[in-house]
Amino acid sequence: MSLIYKPQGRAGEYAKLALNIYKGCDHRCEYCFAPLATHAVRDEFCKPTTRKDDFLKKLEAEAKKLKPSDPVLLCFTCDPYCLLDTEKQLTRSAIQILHRYGHHIHILTKGGRRAIRDLDLMTPNDAFATTLTCLDEATSRKWEPGAATPADRIETARQFHDAGIPTWVSLEPVLDPDVALEIIRRTHTYVDLFKVGKLNYHAHAKTINWAKFAKEAVELLDSLGCKYYVKKDLLKYLTSFRLYDSKFRRGTKSG
For a Cys staple, 27 with which of 54, 147, 180, 229, CB 3.0–4.6 Å? Predict the structure, then answer.
């Protein structure tokens, strides 16, 4: 398989299989790891392009050959609902192909309402996820200028949840611990799972007390009865590592 692949490292904690529909992303997030991971120049990465002309044909061949198992995540090194997708609409075709051969999907996006177009394709065996880093639009525009606003993303997650589609939120990267905790408080009634990480590959990460945030996040999630997964790079900051590690590994089964 060359399009559908097994993510490694931190990405592997989120999904066992993934598909990147575009090359690059026009959300222009300041914290984005993807240019580094794909050995791309950031300015060029932020001008996304479609993959080869035979992308959909090749995807169909792979989807047909691959035995359905774990859900396929869309996407890691791009956003399935980047601005380019409003024109190309390759994400819809990719979902249809994957479903045709029995594969379930997890959408991970900061595209907000752009994803509503494909809500009709989603099933209770799929999942919709959004990354939330901020709550106010001004901060979002600073860090992730091309992405949908936080309010847009939150409302879109609510609509998918109300339609019976499982939802999860990626609290990664965390830019402000207090804001991340407030996101949990505001959204927990329609988010089925929280995946909590930290900020990596950016100088701002050194300004945050990760041990304090990890403890407060776990306590809040427990108090609200939320299902959650703490990523390994944040998990190490918890003092009762062995107790929490056992608990969180069990929790991943719900995701």
Answer: 147
Amino acid found at 124: P
Q: How many domains does the chain have?
A: 1
Q: How far apart are CA 233 and CA 198, in angstroms?
A: 7
Q: H or E stretch including 66?
A: none
Q: How far apart are CA 184 and CA 173, in angstroms?
A: 14
Hey, is 129 helix, strand or coil?
Answer: strand
Tokens matching residue 63: 């989807």
Is the Cβ–Cβ distance between 25 and 79 less than 8 Å? Answer: yes
Range of the structural domain that residue 223 is part of: 4-254
For helices 90-100 and 55-65, angle between their N-to-C axes, nearest 10 degrees: 20
pLDDT in tens, 7-25: 988 788 889 999 999 999 9
Asked whether the whole model's pTM tops 0.85, one would answer: yes
- Tokens (6 digits) for 85: 């997708």
Cis previous bond, 173, omega within 30: yes
Domain with 191 in it: what CATH number? 3.20.20.70
